[in-house]
Backbone:
């Protein structure tokens, strides 16, 4: 895959709940570092993270507002929106359904290898997410 097309392909696969297409964008040994500071390695961890997000917010959609790539590095900015109608498991805990709408902006930094995402570092406001879930 051409790195410059990564963001559109990822957005399309995420919004369609096409886990196979999404996972096809990631290297087998991909590393993920979220805002909690815990790094995990392996495509399987990313697959499980997306499943947990979709379970907690079944109607979640991502809108990418910016993507730039330079060589093997990329950065994207976007917003996730949806309704918290399922149990949401995150690094910060498990949140029972609240029925509340969510709207979270995020930034993700990527390193690519052979056209696949080899590492992802995600930033979002964890306090804002907790507040929107009714936990703060």
Residues:
């Amino acid at each position: 895959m051409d790195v410059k097309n990564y963001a559109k392909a990822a957005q399309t696969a995420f919004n369609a709940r096409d886990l196979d297409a999404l996972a096809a964008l990631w290297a087998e040994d991909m590393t993920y570092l979220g805002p909690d500071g815990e790094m995990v390695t392996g495509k399987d961890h990313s697959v499980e993270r997306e499943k947990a997000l979709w379970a907690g917010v079944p109607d979640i959609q991502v809108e990418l507002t910016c993507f730039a790539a330079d060589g093997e590095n990329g950065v994207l900015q976007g917003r996730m929106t949806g309704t918290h109608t399922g149990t949401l498991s995150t690094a910060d805990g498990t949140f029972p359904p609240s029925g509340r709408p969510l709207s979270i902006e995020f930034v993700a930094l990527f390193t690519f290898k052979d056209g696949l995402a080899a590492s992802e570092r995600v930033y979002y406001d964890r306090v804002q997410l907790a507040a929107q879930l009714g936990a703060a």
